[in-house]
Write a structure and sequence with these properties.
There is one protein chain. α1 (15-26) packs across α6, α2 crosses α3 and α7 crosses α10. The strands form 5 sheets. A 7-stranded parallel sheet has the order 3-2-1-4-5-6-11, sandwiched between helices. A 6-stranded antiparallel sheet has the order 14-19-18-17-16-15, with helices on one face. It is an alpha/beta fold. Helices cover 35% and strands 21% of the residues. The protein has 2 domains: 6-299, NAD(P)-binding Rossmann-like Domain (Rossmann fold, 3-Layer(aba) Sandwich), CATH 3.40.50; 337-483, Alpha-D-Glucose-1,6-Bisphosphate, Chain A, domain 4. The chain contains 13 helices and 19 strands.
Length: 489
């Protein structure tokens, strides 16, 4: 394939497309993203490196303009609507696309569809995805179709549903198919590798490849694996024959942040076996696929010394697509509970940060030091570090320093981030950021908590009244002490 070829990506605002684009750019490709709304791509770190064309695939003329001058295209469009007319809408878009592709004389279309037997009558969504593949294949343009089951990665709708159920519910009443239906999940990293591998490959033209991870499991076994990797007790799962997909969707909607229509569409597709049949159709990328344990391990929110790898982090790495990104939906990336507040000050940003850096140790925490002392004593009784570690220096801080029962994980001129090392059912941080304003400065304070299971959520909400009281007073005193340093507080 010629390096200067122009690659079109439809579905670039979606889960797979949004992670594919930066990898195409890293590989030196020219990329054109097709979207219905240019605003939907404005928050991506790679926006300035791609060409953006606004087009609705329902409209033939707009599709033709979107493909004009292109060489190859990824077709990653899929409706997760729960309505019955989604199939006709998907077919119309596919017909428009292949007609425009033939006119533009594209060299290749790569389509990501879904696994499942073609004669299945259980899932309208799987039927529609395979029908789209056939419509594309009926054109003159060479088509490469990859079929995958559940994609494991933070931000993947099926994985986020799995995450929510296991994290929130220690006991689950589930439809019987949860313990019987088989699937072959695959990591998002492996999906992207396969998509890139077939790009420009003549051997892949007009072929269907089934891709999956190394294990075939039931959904109950997948839940058990998530519990093991996340360090949770295995959930008690009680299968019953009376829960229809619609009732199950309402249940999922109740305990997870996924919208009902999305939950309904997912459950509809999860009632059917989705496994790779035979090995002749598998794409060979030169790398063994991730095991389910490794795939879940990459997707589960984990604490790292220097960053908070969740959707609200400003850190993003193309090398690990399983991790959350800022552009993922709000329901993606695991539950993050936040106490966020800010105040303006007449003091300079440098002065505010000097005060923030003096927290802990002999200085204390600027609010209810006796409560902090009790919390430290309780932590010590539970086998934790307590508050007696103090500080290395009364004012100077470095990454890795201890501050009572916190550790410094990030420090810059106007930002400080502390990781809690006390015994808590989850992971907790305190963070301060200061910025200059016309009248002085503005300080933003965040207490962030990633709960571990239902106990973690109960812990946060039980302490919420204390958090509101303490964190409000703490921030107010940081500003007050900086502007008018008192002898006591």
């Amino acid at each position: 394939m010629v390096e200067s070829e122009l690659i079109v990506v439809t579905g670039s605002t979606g889960y797979v497309g949004g992670r594919l684009v930066p990898r195409l750019l890293e590989a030196g490709k020219r990329v054109r993203c097709v979207t219905r709304s240019i605003e939907s791509l404005q928050d991506r770190s790679w926006t300035q490196d791609v060409e953006i064309v606004v087009a609705n695939l329902d409209k033939k003329n707009e599709v033709k303009d979107a493909l004009a001058g292109a060489d190859r295209a990824f077709y990653l469009v899929h409706s997760m609507s729960a309505t019955r007319d989604f199939a006709s809408a998907e077919q119309k878009m596919a017909e428009n696309f292949i007609e425009a592709a033939d006119l533009a004389e594209l060299k290749q279309i790569i389509y990501l569809g879904g696994l499942g037997m073609e004669n299945t009558e259980k899932s309208l969504h799987l039927q529609s995805r395979q029908k789209v593949g056939k419509i594309l294949a009926d054109g003159l343009t060479p088509v490469t179709e990859l079929r995958a089951a559940i994609i494991i990665g933070s931000g993947s709708a099926s994985f986020e549903m799995l995450r929510s159920l296991v994290e929130v519910l220690p006991i689950m009443i589930v439809p019987k198919w949860v313990t019987k239906t088989r699937c072959q999940p695959i990591s998002i990293g492996n999906v992207l590798e396969n998509l890139l591998h077939v790009l420009g490959s003549d051997e892949s033209f007009n072929r269907v490849f089934e891709i999956g991870g190394p294990e075939i499991v039931t959904y109950q076994e997948m839940m058990d694996m998530y519990s093991d990797v996340a360090g949770l007790r295995r959930r008690i799962i009680l299968p019953v024959p009376v829960l229809t997909p619609r009732l199950s969707s309402h249940w999922v909607n109740l305990v997870s942040p996924l919208p009902f229509t999305l939950a309904r569409a997912l459950i509809d597709s999860l009632t059917t076996d989705v496994i790779v049949h035979g090995t002749d159709n598998e794409v060979v990328t030169g790398r063994s696929p991730d095991s389910l344990e490794n795939a879940i391990g990459k997707a589960v929110t984990r604490v790292q010394e220097m960053e908070i790898p969740t959707r609200w982090s400003d850190t993003s790495s193309y090398s690990d697509p399983a991790r959350p990104e800022s552009s993922d939906p709000k329901w993606a990336g695991g539950k993050v509970l936040v106490d966020r507040r800010s105040l303006s000050s007449t003091a300079s940003p440098e002065s505010i940060m000097d005060t923030v850096r003096s927290l802990g140790g002999d200085t204390g925490w600027f609010a209810f030091n006796w409560i902090w002392a009790i919390r430290g004593f309780m932590d010590k009784m539970l086998g934790g570090v307590g508050v007696r570690r103090g500080r290395r220096h009364p004012k100077d801080l470095r990454v890795g320093d201890t501050v009572d029962f916190f550790k410094v994980t990030l420090i810059t001129k106007f930002r400080l981030q502390l990781l809690a090392e006390m015994k808590v059912p989850g992971h907790a941080w305190l963070e301060w950021t200061v910025e200059e304003t016309n009248d002085g400065s503005r300080i933003r304070q965040q207490a962030l908590f990633v709960p571990k299971g239902v106990i973690g959520r109960a812990y946060w909400y039980a302490l919420l009244p204390f958090h509101i009281l303490i964190f409000r007073r703490m921030l107010g005193n940081i500003v007050k002490i900086t502007e008018e340093p008192p002898s006591n507080f």
